[in-house]
Design goal:
- The complex is a heterodimer of chains A (101) and B (248).
- Chain A is mostly helical.
- Chain A contains 4 helices and no strands.
- Chain B contains 13 helices and no strands.
- In chain B, helix 2 packs parallel to helix 9, helix 4 packs antiparallel against helix 5 and helix 7 packs parallel to helix 9.
- Chains A and B meet through helix 1, helix 2, helix 3 and helix 4 of A and helix 2, helix 3, helix 4, helix 5 and helix 6 of B.
Chain lengths: 101, 248
């Protein structure tokens, strides 16, 4: 029950910002401050969501750190999402495979 | 005068509903392929956390968004409170408000509210980008065509990804925990590299997020609220320091 309630809530809070402006609104936001805030929000959320939690996303914090280093390096050089994800997972997997007790 | 110009534009751009739909489908093909691959990773993440392929597919089919449903699913796996889930997912999706607003200026004004409400479901970063680059008014048929393949790709990839995870070794399943975060890193770093403002936003958000994790007394605060607080403070400061210039 919790599961489907949570999924329903997710679907609603995803749909609401998509549907309200398109159906009910026909003028532009003028405030530069609000526009700027909305522009920066996704980056801020992704940053706060990733750090420090990424370090606890696998069973070993050091292996996770190595995976983060790989992802940061590849991300910096603008590799696409899938490449970065696959290589980060591969690096952690290799650490798991060779070094895990 | 204005009315007659619009009418001509519509007549020139929209020959037949079916043709318009197919034109949309064609433009949606590359997005659909991309979504297929990304959603495989989502399916794997969901299944690694214990959700069934069916439930994972339901999430993708009802949400159709990347960052929001990744974050929401992670919170579900942590058995977080519904309010945390709602706030976190909502805040990640605030950007759709702007995209929807922008599309409202470009959409065929004669379109009914029900049709607009249906199109609104398909507003994603990529679909919005393609739609914005279209010349002339956006019709209902074109938009539905544009959304078709990305929707199918997103749902099918999720289901297959979740199915595949059941065949994976425990070591690999453990390693998959980092996949979502690696994608987040890949999403933010290119922007941070080319914009000092985005880099500053990230820096503030990460510092505050770490404070909520490690500093005594405030570290008891749940991760969902910590993320929201960190993000809102960071974005508020960045908006003050680096107001964006007028853009299209």
């Amino acid at each position: 029950m919790y599961l489907f309630t949570a999924i329903f809530i997710m679907a609603m809070v995803t749909y609401i910002p998509r549907v309200i402006p398109l159906t009910c609104f026909n003028r532009q936001i003028k405030s530069v401050y609000i526009k700027s805030f909305l522009y920066y929000i996704p980056y801020a959320v992704l940053g706060a969501m990733t750090f420090p939690h990424v370090l606890y996303s696998t069973s070993n914090i050091i292996f996770a750190g190595v995976g983060v280093a790989a992802a940061v390096l590849l991300g910096y050089f603008k590799r696409n999402l899938i490449t970065v994800a696959v290589i980060a997972v591969g690096v952690v997997y290799l650490c798991n495979f060779f070094f895990a007790a | 005068m204005k009315y007659s110009i619009n009418k001509e534009a519509v007549r020139a751009e929209v020959p037949l509903p079916v043709q318009d739909y197919l034109r949309g489908v064609k433009k949606g093909l590359p997005i659909g392929l991309g979504y297929f691959y990304v959603s495989i990773a989502f399916g794997m993440m969901a299944a690694a956390g214990g959700l069934t392929p069916f439930v994972a597919a339901i999430i993708s089919m009802s949400n159709l968004t990347s960052a929001g449903q990744f974050a929401g699913t992670r919170l579900i796996l942590e058995a977080a409170h519904s309010i945390e889930i709602a706030l976190t997912v909502f805040i990640l999706n605030i950007r759709y408000f702007l995209m929807s607003l922008s599309l409202s200026q470009k959409i065929d004004q004669k379109m009914g509210k029900m049709k607009k409400a249906l199109i609104a479901f398909g507003i994603t970063d990529e679909i919005f980008t393609i739609a914005s680059l279209e010349k002339g008014l956006l019709t209902f048929e074109f938009m539905i065509g544009l959304i078709t393949l990305p929707y199918i790709g997103w749902a099918a990839g999720t289901y297959l990804g979740a199915r595949a995870t059941m065949l994976l070794s425990p070591l690999l399943q453990d390693a998959l925990g980092i996949a979502l975060y690696a994608m987040f890193i890949a999403l933010i770093l290119p922007a941070a590299r080319s914009s000092k403002a985005v880099l500053t936003t990230l820096f503030i958000a990460v510092v505050i997020s770490c404070m909520f994790k490690y500093i005594p007394y405030i570290r008891g605060i749940s991760s969902g609220f910590a993320i929201i607080a960190a993000a809102m403070i960071a974005a508020a400061v960045a908006a003050r320091l680096f107001p964006i210039k007028e853009e299209s």
